[in-house]
Design a protein that fits this description.
single chain, 11 helices, alpha/beta, 304 residues, globular, 5-stranded parallel sheet, binds phosphoric acid mono(formamide)ester
């Protein structure tokens, strides 16, 4: 069974295969004939979306990807409240039931490690759509796909990752995927309490990826090829805050490279000002669109 649980499960070869398949999906969607062919590809199959936390992009782009491939979707609105988890059912029991109704389960959960627990009992593919502060591997994949499309490569990049790195699961998946490509240099910008976790830093060490940690925007943003910004995860924090200095605005844009890109998993709150959106370097809406192609590729692999 092909589960998608976390960044470390992928080899370089597997990442490249998924990126190539997503590119095929993107190209096929551009022509009426390609769309028709895709719509028959998994006709009659069913996937379930089980989201115990809110989502706009992940859930809707997965459901869109499923429909593009002819797959039917069953779902529960706000699974934390409206599934039998609210009555005390364990995730293992929920999965044992849903696996008999669907050919794959796409799951988002507020607790770290829930996707692994689900996979341990599931006979159908489990796709981790975000687990607590752990990982968001399908977002990581669409992020590396975006970098490849925008910059033409995934190696020898100066990457700046900033914001709430302690609680942002997307940036954890993204950085660990980038670690498979040579020559990348990462700068993590955050307050000491919201810096990148030691587990990810140790993984970078193992893969001989150079990185630095700082609490200042200045000094690395000017030479960055890729700026990956994240919001404060208020839902996971009681009283932490990022200082106002951690905002990408027109002043920050003015010192950035002309060929840099700004990425953000979204939702954006106030850490990138709306004035930045019109700059061609603002890649975050293109990034969100890429989610459909990556998720089509993942569903295709999971169901094939
Ligand atoms: N990037 C992301 O996971 O967005 P949603 O929470 O809207 O799915």
């Amino acid at each position: 069974v092909q589960h998608f649980l976390g960044a470390r499960q992928f080899s370089w070869y597997e990442l490249e295969r998924i990126l190539a398949l997503a590119e095929v999906m993107r190209e096929m969607l551009e022509s009426p004939a390609g769309r028709r062919e895709l719509a028959d590809r998994h006709k009659g199959r069913i996937v379930a979306t089980l989201f115990f936390e809110p989502s706009t992009r992940t859930r809707l782009s997965f459901e869109s990807a499923a429909h593009r491939l002819g797959i039917n979707v069953i779902s529960t609105e706000n699974a934390r409240e409206h599934s039998s988890a609210a009555k005390g059912e364990t995730i293992e029991d929920t999965v044992r039931i849903v696996e008999s109704y669907a050919d794959a389960i796409i799951m988002r959960h507020h607790e770290n490690g829930t996707a692994e627990r689900a996979a341990a009992v599931s006979s159908v593919p489990i796709i981790n759509a975000g687990d607590g502060t752990g990982e968001h591997p399908t977002q990581g994949l669409l992020d590396v796909f975006t970098v490849k499309r925008e910059k033409g490569r995934l190696d020898n990049l100066r990457v700046v990752a900033g914001g709430d790195l302690a609680n942002g699961r997307t940036v954890r998946s993204f950085i660990q995927m980038l670690a498979l490509y040579p020559g990348n240099e990462i700068t993590f910008i955050s307050t000491p309490e919201l810096q990148m976790g030691e587990d990810v830093l140790n993984y970078l060490d193992q893969n001989k990826v150079r990185y630095t940690k700082t609490n200042s925007l200045k000094g690395s943003i000017e030479s960055a090829d890729v700026v990956y910004w994240t919001r404060l995860q208020k839902e996971r924090l009681s009283n932490s805050k990022l200082e106002s200095g951690f905002v990408i605005d027109e002043d920050v844009l003015s010192v950035m490279r002309k060929d840099a890109i700004i990425m953000h998993p979204l939702p954006r709150v106030d850490e990138i000002t709306a004035a930045v959106d019109k700059d061609p370097r603002a890649a975050y809406f293109r990034q969100a669109k890429n989610g459909v192609y990556i998720r089509m590729a993942l569903l295709d692999l999971a169901l094939s």
